[in-house]
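in:
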């Protein structure tokens, strides 16, 4: 099948978005807009991130190269980025990241974009710096004032369609992305990154009502945040509330995606725009003893959504495993733009041509303990953990100790029953997965004789105060 080219491509990435967070994958999820995209397009049921958190995953998403491809540090490799390929082909390029400090120009994520905004705050007062470092407090202040803003908006516009809390910078991103679509001519590539599903989860109350039927109120949201913020034990009620908050935050993103689609329609380009949606990694809810996304490689952190919807394009579901390094060549394929020769991934724009290829490899770096702070972000800051996945199997290996874990995903998607060294282990499967890990590890890090100087090798002295504040606010000390 030959891919029908579209004029424009919109890439939507959602931080911390689990595969089961979409209604298309889970009966309990509530994502009507994304579900419509899934029905119109192709859902890749076994899409995997190449790392457990943003700096380890995103080099593949925008550069189709693994983290540590050229050095011991995070950041994009020197090879062409997705935006650079589109720009060289004559497309307008816009990138809008909702204040994830790891997706800024400091790590090279502005490369190739005509318009780029990372929304990292620049507070000018002590009060502003405090709020920037404490987004949960900022959210509660916004919630307290939201009835007044809602009333003012109703008087001015006669509606209250938009939420009135925006510590996630969702509305800022949405506004810039809409302006980018409306204010230019010619084909474009647009990247939007949402942070709502990242901790702390502080959705607008309307979305809490939407996913809970009104059963959870804002006082329960406050209780859950206080308990987790103080490090208290996560009891069943708190865990259930956190899951509801997360689902509501995802629903908030879903609504924004719907408004972006409406903007495309209003600009008259919806019928010539392909949309790709992916999570950059998942989120843990105590499946393996923790919250958020500490250095682990289980499915709750690595299995993510990937949806590709193109005008007059195919629809359906693909079971063959794919890595997120397929995103850049797929986006290029959709628009008829040549992919870079240096890219590691292959296009999955034609679902009929996707076969069960090599296992998908993901990596993380773990310190002395899973919860060590600061979380390691360099190869030399802890033990390298690597996993390899097929549709049915996962092998996790600690490269420093040689310890291995083996899971049969087909029957144990939660990775609760380690089969390594048992009668349930398939030696041929283990050898295939271990070989994939060996090959991947051999290909990363500084080249022989190189200094290993990467984009963040001097980050502790080079990162400015605003960026440091934002990273700390996200829990990355």
């Amino acid at each position: 099948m030959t891919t029908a080219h579209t004029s424009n491509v919109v890439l939507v990435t959602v931080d911390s978005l689990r595969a089961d967070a979409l209604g298309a994958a889970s009966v309990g999820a509530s994502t009507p807009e994304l579900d419509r995209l899934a029905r119109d397009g192709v859902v890749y049921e076994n899409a995997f991130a190449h790392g457990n958190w943003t700096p380890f995953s995103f080099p593949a998403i925008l550069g189709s190269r693994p983290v540590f491809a050229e050095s011991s540090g995070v950041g994009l490799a020197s090879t062409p980025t997705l935006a650079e390929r589109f720009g060289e082909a004559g497309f307008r390029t816009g990138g809008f990241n909702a204040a994830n400090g790891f997706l800024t120009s400091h790590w090279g994520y502005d490369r190739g974009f005509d318009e780029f905004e990372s929304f990292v705050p620049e507070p000018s007062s002590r009060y502003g710096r405090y709020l920037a470092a404490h987004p949960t407090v900022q959210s509660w202040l916004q919630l307290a004032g939201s009835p007044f803003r809602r009333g003012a908006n109703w008087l001015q516009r006669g509606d209250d369609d938009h939420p009135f809390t925006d510590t996630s910078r969702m509305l800022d991103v949405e506004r810039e992305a809409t302006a980018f679509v409306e204010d230019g001519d010619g084909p474009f590539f647009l990247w939007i990154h949402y942070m709502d599903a990242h901790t702390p989860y502080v959705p607008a109350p309307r979305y809490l009502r939407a996913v809970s039927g009104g059963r959870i109120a804002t006082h329960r949201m406050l209780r859950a945040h206080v308990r987790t913020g103080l490090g208290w034990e996560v009891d069943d009620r708190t865990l259930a509330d956190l899951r509801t908050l997360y689902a509501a935050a995802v629903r908030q993103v879903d609504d924004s995606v719907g408004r972006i689609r409406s903007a495309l329609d209003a600009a008259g380009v919806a019928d010539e725009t392909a949309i790709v949606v992916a999570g950059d990694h998942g989120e843990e809810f105590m499946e393996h003893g923790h919250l958020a996304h500490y250095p682990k490689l289980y499915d709750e952190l690595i299995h993510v959504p990937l949806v590709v919807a193109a005008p007059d394009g195919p629809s359906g579901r693909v079971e063959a495993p794919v890595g997120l390094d397929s995103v850049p060549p797929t986006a290029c394929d959709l628009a008829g733009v040549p992919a870079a020769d240096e890219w590691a991934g292959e296009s999955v724009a034609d679902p009929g041509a996707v076969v069960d290829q090599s296992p998908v490899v993901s990596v993380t770096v773990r310190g002395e303990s899973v919860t060590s702070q600061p979380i390691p972000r360099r190869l030399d800051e802890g033990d390298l953990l690597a996993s390899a996945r097929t549709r049915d199997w996962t092998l996790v290996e600690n490269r420093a100790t040689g310890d291995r874990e083996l899971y049969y995903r087909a029957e144990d998607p939660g990775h609760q029953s380690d089969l390594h060294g048992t009668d349930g282990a398939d030696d041929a499967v283990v050898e295939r997965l271990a070989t994939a890990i060996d090959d991947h590890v051999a290909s990363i890090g500084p080249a022989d004789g190189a200094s290993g100087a990467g984009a963040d090798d001097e980050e502790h002295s080079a990162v400015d105060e605003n960026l440091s504040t934002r990273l700390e606010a996200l829990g990355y000390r």
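note: Residues 8-358+453-473 form a domain with the Alkaline Phosphatase, subunit A fold (CATH 3.40.720.10).
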